[in-house]
Structures are given as C-alpha cells and as structure tokens.
C-alpha cells in the first residue's frame, strides 16, 4: 500500500552490483555447476513442500544424484495444508498484502472484522479479547513461530482471546518474513498473517487508536504431497550420510540454493574419493513445517547411530551474500559471504577444522556439535544420537524473504566457501572418520 524506501534492496542492487565488485571478481566466479545450480533452483520456486517448484526440484536433484552413481528412492510425504490465494489486512482506506501464517485459518471472502490493538510484550490480556492483535516483533532475522521472541507474544495473545493476529517481522530487509511452523499449532484457530515493517506504519497507527480492521485469508484446503529423496551408493563399513533440505517458502537462493549446490557437488566428490565407502544422500522436504521430512528420514530410513561414521548436514545459508545495511530496509550488495553462519563438529575435530576454515567468514569459528549449539534438522539429528555431525546452519539478511533470489548469492564467495568447506570435510574424513 505505502511506498517503500526511495532506494530499496532491488534498486540498490541494480545500481550498484556491477560497480561494487572489485576488478576481476566476476572472472573469479565459480564454475558453471555451483552458481548455475543456485540460479536453476531459484528459478523453480516457490519451493513450499508440494508446490510445482518443489516437485520440479525433486526431479532435478534425483537426476543429478543418479548421474553421480547413486540409486535413488522417494520417501513419500503428505500432510494437510492450504493453498492461500489472498492474504490481506485492511483498515479504512489502507490495504496491505501479507504472508499467511501457517497452519492457516481461512476467513472466506468476507474476511474477519474486529478492533485492532497493539499487543507487543508485555501483553495486557484484558485489552485483547475479541480483538485483532498487532504484534511488532523485535528486530531479528526471523525464522520460526516457535522462536521465543515470537512464541511468547503469540501465545499470550491467543490465551487472551484475540480473534486474529497480524505479525510485523522487523528485520534487515524491511520485508515480510515467512515463519516456519509445525503441522499443528494454536495459531490455526485464528486468521494470522505477516506484514512487512516498511509498510506497517498505518496498521500500527490504526491499532494504537483502536480502529476496526479486517483480515481476509482466502484459499482452499489441500494435501501437500511430496517426497524425501533418499540416495545410496552401497559400500563397506559404517555409513557417511549427507543431508540438505530441498523445500522452503519462496525462491530461497541464499537460504537453500547455496547449500543444494554444495550438496550436488559433494556427491560425486565423495563417490570418487572414497570408492568403497557406504554413501547415503538425502534431500529433505517439509523443512518449513518444522522439519517433518528430516524427522521422517531419521525415523525410518537412516542407518542407526552406531552404523554412521559421519553425518554431514548442509543447512540454511551455506554461502549467502553479505550486505551493507544502509538504512531500514535498504541493503547494498557486498562481494562476500554473510558471516551469520555457523559450522558445528565434534569438539575433538575442531583443531583440524580451524586452520582450513580460517578464511571463511563465520565458519572460521567452528563450534562443538551439541544440542544446545544446533538448530533446524541438525538439532533433531543430534537429539536422536547422531553425534559425529558436521553441520552448517545460518540466517542471512534475506532469510525467508520473497527477495531471496539468485542475486542473494555472490558467485566468488560461493566458490570460496565450497573450496574451503570441502577441503575441511575431506580432512575430517581422512583423519577422524575413516571407518
């Protein structure tokens, strides 16, 4: 509804990307497979589980793993979802489009009307009953409705009897950020949507006055139908497992695509270097619904922990671009990787990893692979007893934003990340996980 900043992320990118890179940087970009894979993945999106983009990703990754010598099977995944065609919050002459918060509670075409009220922490329950609660979340790289800074005010507003929720995800890009959510969550009882902080001013002002608002969430109930890809090159000894999520909310180039590019590179690399090894590769769906695909894989098809010598997990933001934050929602591209990424490994292996990762922002400080340090699917795997884990996790500045497209990955830093990470991985296998 409202105009964004005069120079937003895309405008800044168009004006400055070509001139902001040091001379020769473009010529030093990765070979075609790494960056081309990122571009191809992003072009298939959105990647929500069961969508056309997600299913096309399965076909593409399955063909690549097959070409690398792996026998690939599909582990079917099905769950209830909604195909939402309209997600709007309106008050007076103001109308803003948002992102539906799942599990969805559709309103029908007439929508839900009620007084708006600000419901930031601390929440006054007496003010929320029968109202649409507008919650301004703290500034962060938001990812999940289960994160404490989001979960607390949402839980309080629902407990107080609100009839609708509007979440303002304040983050670096100024955009609305989709929030991961489990298949079942109390938010399914009220229509809920996420709006961009750069556009939220009129809604916040209306909520401060107590004006009436209307949420419209239109869509149909569907069954999200997809599959994990489970590939194996059978060999001797305990298994090496490599996993990465394939699904996500939108184009997911930096969040998912950079890790998928590494996943597709490491499959033939390990197959060549360790011709007798028992290799397992799994591309997982359901990531955005709090890792249901990863849980299904580890629960049914993964070898038990005592039969695994190494589990490698490529999580979010493997090599997403870094950005200057010029102003609220105004980002300028940098020719390097975002340092808000982490590498986890068993503590006894960290001495091997540190010198090999020394030039990679974020990864140069690896952490012990513990439940407390981990997140995403990696945390679930460690909780299930897989302690010989090397995992990458992160959240770049466009994490879960619609604009996480191929411009969110710098080709040269993607190549550098792959080179350093893969050398470190091979060193760990050779020194610590031989059999």
Explain how this protein is built.
With 435 residues, the chain is an alpha/beta fold. The chain is 30% helix and 28% strand. The protein is built from ten helices and 16 strands. Strands 1, 2, 3, 4, 5, 6, 7, 8, 9, 10, 11, 14, 15 and 16 form a 14-stranded mixed sheet that branches. A two-stranded antiparallel ribbon has the order 12-13. Strand 14, helix 8 (350-356) and strand 15 form a beta-alpha-beta unit. The radius of gyration is 22 Å and the shape is elongated. The chain starts with 8 loop residues before the first helix and ends with a helix. Residues 1-32 have low confidence and may be disordered.
Key terms:
elongated; alpha/beta; 30% helix; disordered N terminus; 10 helices; 435 residues
Order of helices and strands, N to C? Answer: HHHEEEEEHEEHEEHEHEEEEHEHEH
Mean pLDDT: 92
Q: How would you characterize the largest beta sheet?
A: 14 strands, mixed
Number of helices: 10
Query: Which structural class should the secondary elements be placed in?
Result: alpha/beta
Low-confidence stretches: 1-32
* Proportion of strand residues: 25-35%
General shape: elongated
How many beta strands in the DSSP annotation?
Answer: 16
The end-to-end distance, rounded to whole angstroms, is 59 Å
- The amount of helix comes to 25-40%
Instruction: Please state the CA-atom Rg, rounded to the nearest Å.
Output: 22 Å
């Amino acid at each position: 509804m409202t105009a964004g900043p005069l120079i937003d992320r895309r405008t800044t990118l168009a004006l400055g990307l070509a001139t902001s890179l040091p001379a020769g940087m473009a010529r030093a970009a990765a070979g075609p497979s790494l960056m081309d894979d990122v571009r191809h993945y992003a072009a298939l999106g959105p990647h929500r589980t069961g969508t056309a983009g997600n299913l096309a990703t399965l076909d593409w990754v399955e063909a690549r793993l097959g070409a690398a010598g792996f026998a690939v099977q599909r582990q079917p995944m099905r769950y209830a979802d909604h195909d939402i065609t309209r997600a709007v919050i309106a008050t007076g002459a103001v109308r803003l489009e948002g992102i539906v918060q799942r599990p969805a509670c559709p309103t029908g075409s007439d929508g839900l009307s009620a007084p708006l009220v600000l419901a930031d922490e601390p929440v006054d329950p007496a003010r929320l009953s029968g109202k649409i609660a507008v919650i301004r979340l703290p500034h962060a790289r938001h990812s999940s409705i289960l994160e404490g800074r989001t979960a607390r005010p949402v839980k309080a507003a629902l407990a107080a009897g609100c009839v609708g929720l509007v979440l303002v995800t304040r983050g670096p890009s100024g955009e609305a950020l989709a929030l991961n959510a489990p298949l079942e969550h109390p938010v399914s009882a009220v229509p809920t949507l996420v709006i961009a902080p750069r556009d939220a001013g009129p809604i916040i002002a209306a909520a401060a006055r107590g004006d009436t608002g209307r949420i419209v969430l239109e869509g149909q109930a569907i069954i999200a139908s997809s599959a994990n890809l489970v590939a194996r090159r059978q060999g001797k000894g305990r298994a090496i497992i490599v996993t990465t999520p394939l699904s996500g909310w939108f184009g997911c180039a930096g969040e998912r695509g950079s890790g998928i590019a590494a996943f597709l590179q490491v499959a033939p690399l390990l197959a060549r270097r360790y011709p007798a090894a028992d290799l397992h590769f799994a591309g997982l769906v359901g990531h955005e619904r709090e890792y249901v695909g990863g849980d299904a894989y580890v629960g049914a098809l993964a070898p038990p922990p005592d039969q695994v010598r190494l589990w490698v997990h490529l999580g979010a933001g493997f090599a997403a671009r870094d950005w200057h934050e010029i102003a609220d929602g105004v980002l300028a591209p940098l020719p390097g990787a975002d340092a808000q990424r982490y590498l986890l490994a068993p503590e006894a292996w960290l001495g091997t990893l540190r010198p090999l990762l020394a030039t990679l922002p974020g990864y140069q400080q690896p952490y012990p692979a513990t439940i407390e340090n981990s997140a995403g699917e990696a945390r679930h795997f460690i909780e299930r007893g897989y302690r010989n884990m090397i995992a990458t996790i992160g959240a770049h500045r466009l994490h879960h934003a619609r604009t996480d497209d191929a411009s969110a990955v710098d080709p040269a830093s993607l190549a550098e990340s792959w080179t350093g990470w893969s050398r470190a991985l091979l060193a760990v296998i050779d020194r610590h996980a031989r059999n």
